[in-house]
Specification:
Layout (H helix, E strand, L loop, with lengths): L9 H15 L5 H4 L9 H16 L6 E5 L5 H13 L8 E5 L26 H14 L9 E5 L2 H11 L5 E6 L4 H11 L3 E9 L9 H9 L8 E2 L7 E4 L2
Helix pairs in contact: 3-4, 4-5, 6-7, 7-8
Bound molecules: S-adenosylmethionine.
Length: 246
């Protein structure tokens, strides 16, 4: 299993493993299991979902697509799909695009400090196929299911972002969510997307001001600066932050 950074104590990790085992071994019938997921969600999981919900609500009146930089298992993509279905079910223009290697970190730079290592945050083999099936499922739970409104872009995002924008020069971005944890892909993608933002675009970050992954702050400092826009936060999460282009 690939390395994932956690600040949880050993006893917290043990309790969480036990609950995950209970979920896998649950006697709740399949027909009712998804209706009862709240039984297993921790406060922190719920905070995260509420945070993504808060961001989504802020972009409802901003035209453009959503890009997630660093997808991993893809929960945020599924959440964006559900929030689109709830708040703007007929906005088939709100495409959701996820960038990832689906192989974890493929390189790290001196700007990334001592903790990040090649191979961290890898997923299981061909996971993107499983993720596509899940995203297809969520698409079918909302109106206009015959139009595919998401795209997974596999590979090094420093390169794939340029190719994507070449294929889609019409792109306007309403929300860009940065969660690579790393300096170089964050810098390159930030540089590439800036001319595709508008007033009201949210650029969100998962690891600013975080000593375990210093590269993300460095990338923001280099491309936009730390005092160009207010770096806002929410009480729902200690690490997440965002800027609003104005
Ligand atoms: C912390 S995880 C993302 C977590 C996810 N956003 C979530 O909320 O669960 C970081 C992801 O960035 C991806 N990543 C790192 N460097 C990358 C690069 N150069 N190109 C594409 N993806 C990259 C990794 O494969 C990993 O899946």
């Amino acid at each position: 299993m690939s390395k994932v950074l956690s600040n949880a104590s050993n006893s917290e990790l043990q309790r969480r493993t036990t609950v995950a085992e209970q979920l896998r071994g649950s006697t709740i019938p399949n027909s009712e299991l998804l209706d009862n997921l709240g039984l297993y969600l921790r406060r922190q999981n719920l905070s995260r979902i509420l945070y993504i919900h808060d961001l989504y609500k802020q972009i409802i009146d901003v035209h453009g697509i959503i890009m997630e930089f660093g997808v991993r298992w893809g929960q945020n993509l599924a959440l964006y799909q559900s929030f689109r279905g709830i708040y703007e079910p007929y906005n088939y223009n709100r495409k959701i695009v996820g960038f990832d290697t689906f192989e974890g970190f493929i390189s790290v730079d001196p700007e990334d400090g001592m903790l990040a290592k090649v191979g961290d945050y890898a997923v299981s083999e061909n996971y993107e196929v499983q993720l596509s099936e899940l995203l297809d499922f969520h698409e079918k739970e909302s109106p206009i299911p015959h139009l595919k409104k998401y795209e997974l872009v596999k590979g090094d995002a420093s390169e794939t972002i340029l190719d994507y924008l070449k294929r889609h020069p019409e792109t306007i971005i309403s929300l860009a969510y940065f969660d690579f944890d790393l300096y170089k892909p964050t810098r390159d993608c930030l540089q590439a997307i800036m001319e595709h933002t508008t007033k009201g675009t949210i650029i969100a970050f998962d690891e600013l001001n975080f000593s375990s992954f210093p590269g993300e702050t460095e990338a923001l400092k280099e491309v936009i600066g730390l005092n160009t826009y207010a770096i806002k936060r929410s009480p729902l999460n200690p690490l997440c932050s965002y800027i609003v282009i104005n």
